[in-house]
Amino acid sequence: MSGSAKRRRRAHVAGVTAALARGEWRWLARAAWRLVQLRVAPGRARPLFATLAVTWRCNYRCTFCDLPDRARGDPPLATLVERLTAIAASGALAVGLTGGEPLLHPQLFEVIAAARRLGLLVHLNSNGSRLTEAAVAPLLASGLHSINLSLDGATAATHDALRRVPGSFAQIERTVRALLAARRRGSPRLALVMAVGAENAGEVAPFLAVARAWGVDGAGFLPHHEFVGPRAPLPPASVAKLASALAAVADDPLQDNSPAYLGAIAPFLDGAPMPQQCSAPASHLAIDPDGVRYPCVPLMTLTRGGSPLAAGAPPPLPADLREEVCRRCWWNCHRELDLSLHRLAAPR
Questions:
Q1: 50 three-state secondary structure
Q2: Where does residue 266 rank: exposed (0-12), middle (13-18), buried (19+ CB within 10 A)?
Q3: What is d(CA 138, CA 132) in angstroms, rounded to the nearest whole number?
Q4: Residue 125 φ/ψ, nearest 5 degrees
Q5: What is the DSSP letter of 184?
Q6: C-alpha pair distances (Å), 288 with each of 82, 114, 284, 304
Q7: Which residues are 308's β-sheet partners?
Q8: Rounded Cα distance, 119 and 92, in Å
């Protein structure tokens, strides 16, 4: 593996730094021991982190997503606390809250506070549309560690077209300004994330310029994944340009992803097969709004089915379905961990 492939994802380093700043030494000791266990005996490992989808509802109708079509009402606070308790009991160190749009859940701040009481680090993924100035104070008071806002372009024209919500780019900028003005000592960490696809592949460097101008703590990339069916390959003429653009920003101090991860995005969008060895079944746990448990977020969002949390570990998915989803997956929530643990060779 190349030297650059061994470099860690900056967002992971930032998470450890945040825990240090908060004096969470017991959590850091647990995290160090769990990483040793995962590397030495992955077959006996417990989840390092979990993802809890608190709602499928969303106020966007993105061109690439059908998650809102699955919405059948939000789970109540007591149910979500039960799921968080199970996540903590599983040994997970952190939980990412997602959706749908998680801020549509009327008791999200109470969910975050409950996760903190259970000793979990808490991360939030949001489209940024619901974080008005009035919502910033209770969000910060909940104890959140980090938040990623989805921004799928360097211009309002690109982002708003992909998200099908005019004015959403401007709303995210207002959200960023409000969060940065209200937080203390740089917490929670605030990052922008761009899902790269054919429509915005030419905006890699401009996206980082926007992130720098807005003053956020980090900016990351992942390839566009189709929720509603197999993804069409990126047009061949765009692949080399995208690969060059991502390589050019790999060492930018604002950029969150490892060079090895960035180097795989253009081949992935070009239809190249991805390595299928993955740490997710040993390192991750995902629970959807209906309480169905999965080994990773892609299997939660790109497939349907599974088993209730109360029934324990879900039965294995059919091999052909698992392979199909894994071929369509280069999600940084676990692939970056694979690269950090040297469980995958850098894609060629």
A1: strand
A2: buried
A3: 11
A4: -105, 130
A5: B
A6: 13, 18, 13, 10
A7: 292
A8: 10
Supply φ then ψ for residue 111, to 5 degrees.
Answer: -65, -45
> Taking the CB of residue 286, how many other CB atoms lie within 10 A of it?
26
Domains in the chain, CATH or no CATH each: 4-340 (3.20.20.70)
Question: Confidence class of residue 318 from pLDDT cuts 50, 70 and 90?
Answer: low
Residue bearing tokens 């952190």: 94
In sign, the C-alpha dihedral spanning 312, 313, 317, 322 is positive
Tell me the C-alpha to C-alpha distance, in Å, between residue 72 and each of 68, 104, 178, 267.
9, 13, 32, 37
The single residue listed with the structure tokens 């950029």 is: 255
CB count in 10 Å sphere of residue 218: 20
Beta bridge partners of 53: 98
- Please tell me the pTM assigned to this model: 0.84
- Both tokens assigned to 31: 């995290």
Q: Round to whole Å and give the CA distance between 251 and 4.
A: 10
The gap from C-alpha 138 to its chain's centroid, in whole angstroms, comes to: 22
Check: CB of residue 79 under 8 Å from CB of residue 111: no
Per-residue pLDDT tens digits for 204-243: 999 999 999 999 999 999 998 876 555 667 788 889 999 9
Query: 305, 291, 311, 314: which is closest to 74 by C-alpha?
Result: 291
Three-state SS sequence of 304-335:
CCCEEHHHCCCCCCCHHHHHHHHHCCCCHHHH
